[in-house]
Amino acid sequence: MSSEQQLNLFEDSNFNQKDLIPTDAKIPIPPGTYASMIELAQHCNQCHRCGLGDTRQNAVVGRGNLKAPIMVVGEAPGQNEDETGLPFVGKAGQLLDKILGSVNLDTEKDIYICNINKCRPPDNRVPTTGEMAACRPYLIEQIHLVDPKIILLTGATAVKGLTGDKRGITTIRGKWIEWEERLCMPIFHPSYLLRNSSREVGSPKWLMWQDIQAVRAQFDAIHNIVD
Ligand code: SF4
Prior knowledge:
The chain is α/β, with parallel strands linked by helices. The chain has helices at about 5-10, 35-45, 80-85, 90-100, 130-145, 155-165, 170, 190-195, 205-225, and strands at about 65, 70-75, 110-115, 150-155, 175-180, 180-185.
């Protein structure tokens, strides 16, 4: 059989480009590829678009309400998340739930939580630019599926991974960014707050309190417009 005939067979077969998504970061993920988060999670759990797939125990796709008005995006899973397959379940996750709860935002009802990268970087290092780029199309699909009105980006890596903005988190936290017609707010990562316990005016915890109140006010404003 000539190579041209082989190529024709390849094109005519039931071969589906979508099946190749988890194998290579060069395979695009067109908008609307996944009809559900379950389908997306199946690909993430078999994914090797970047090297992080080689060492993961579980891909960490997300938790919370699949139609939540607020999405929280973190950096990447840590050890607890890798073991459980759920994002933000360690001490930082418990603090995040408390912060959201302080303005009566329920992580099961009002929030969907996920990360830029679905697999744990070894030794909890920051994901590389290439690793973030390989995984970003999954996040874009998640945003399309959940369709949140507000996106909270926890830490500089999350901001950079989604929007490409490389500014430091202390410069941009608390400021609304419009991205793809959605309102995003960079906030401190809860693990940063765990390392900075002061509650004094101007401290990271105090600043987070200002930011989460601004988020609550925006959430109420959107609800009032919709209602
Ligand atoms: S981090 Fe993302 S791109 Fe990399 S292997 Fe995991 S799911 Fe695939």
